[in-house]
Design goal:
This protein is α+β, with helices and mostly antiparallel strands. It has seven helices and eleven strands. Strands 1-2-3-7-6 form a five-stranded mixed beta barrel. Strands 8-11-9-10 form a four-stranded mixed sheet. The radius of gyration is 27 Å and the shape is flat. The termini are far apart.
Length: 315
């Protein structure tokens, strides 16, 4: 009888341990994932991608996350470009694991050289459009202020409401406040790739050159350090060229100038790589001076460094 009882106890323990091991293995396996999709925005360590299964999946990055470009014959060439290369429109494959908030913590990000070239070309073409959109938004904000002022005047003329009506209004306002708070939270989650400009600095260059002067280096370093602690901020670098010379040369010069300024920003150590957007080569677009004088064309040989703040973080 004792032997049978011991056998039953031993079998029960073995079955329980096997079940627990199976659950642990299944849970660990379920956390690993490889996801493919298009980058729709990046803010700091968070990147949003659109996949066939999700319109917006949050990916968590770090300064050490490999962002590898594949190219060359049969895609055999590999180059780690850093997470600043992860621009909107880029087709990526992300390998990592999900955290408890169902965010994909990336171990590495892989993309093709062709996809990166296409995404950068699209990004460069979008800047003029974004400027027009920003102008429209400024007008909308102005119109909204006029409406708010009119509403304030109406409210001022309605101060003869009786006590009972005031009590009902207070209850209504409290309910509206709760609804607004929920709406604000949803808006911030959906604003990962929406920015507004806070400050900027321009660095100018000699004709045909991409070398930053000592004076401009010091001013640029001071500017970056001064805005480093701005909550939710990102640094955007845009390189430009004058219309002198061929289009191919000017496109290359605008890229080299943007890269030179980006290197100085990185050397300051004031901001992590997760807060720097990929440098954009704008070529001869957005000429600030149209005259063909030396001084006018000198204004067009420039790099503009802009501090933008993510609305999803600052609200």
């Amino acid at each position: 009888m004792n032997i049978q009882r011991q056998l039953r106890t031993t079998c029960s323990l073995a079955i329980s341990m096997a079940a627990l091991a199976s659950v642990g293995i299944t849970a660990a396996h379920a956390q690993q994932a490889t996801v493919e999709g298009f980058v729709i925005g990046r803010s700091g360590e968070q990147m949003a991608i659109k996949t066939p299964d999700s319109p917006r999946l949050t990916v968590i990055l770090s300064d050490n996350t490999p962002a590898t470009e594949k190219g060359g014959f049969l895609g055999m060439s590999h180059k780690n470009l850093g997470i600043e290369a992860l621009v909107p429109g880029l087709s990526v494959k992300v390998e990592g694991s999900y955290n408890p908030d169902h965010q994909l913590v990336a171990k590495k990000v892989v993309f093709s050289r062709t996809s990166l070239s296409t995404a950068k070309a699209v990004e460069s073409g979008l800047y003029p459009v974004n400027a027009e959109v920003a102008g429209v938004k400024d007008q909308q904000r102005s119109d909204r202020k006029d409406i708010e002022q009119s509403q304030a005047d109406i409210a001022k003329n309605s101060q003869d409401i009786d006590t009972t009506k005031q009590g009902l209004d207070a209850t209504t306002q409290a309910t509206a406040g709760n609804t607004t708070a929920i709406g604000t939270t949803n808006t911030r989650i959906g604003s990962l790739d929406q920015f507004e400009t806070k400050d900027s600095i321009t660095v100018n260059f000699a004709n045909g050159k991409a070398t930053v002067s000592k004076k401009d280096k010091d001013q640029l370093a001071d500017f970056v350090k001064a805005v480093a602690d701005t909550p939710g901020s990102m640094i955007e670098v845009q390189g430009y060229a004058s219309t002198s010379g061929s289009a191919t040369l000017n496109q290359r010069l605008s890229q080299e100038r943007a890269d030179a300024v980006l290197a100085i920003i990185q050397q300051t150590g004031a901001v992590p790589m997760t807060r720097i957007l990929a440098p954009a080569a704008m070529g001869t677009t957005n000429q600030v001076a149209t005259e063909h004088t030396r001084s006018a064309q000198a204004e067009n040989r420039r790099v503009v460094v802009t501090i933008v703040v993510n609305k999803g973080i600052t609200g």
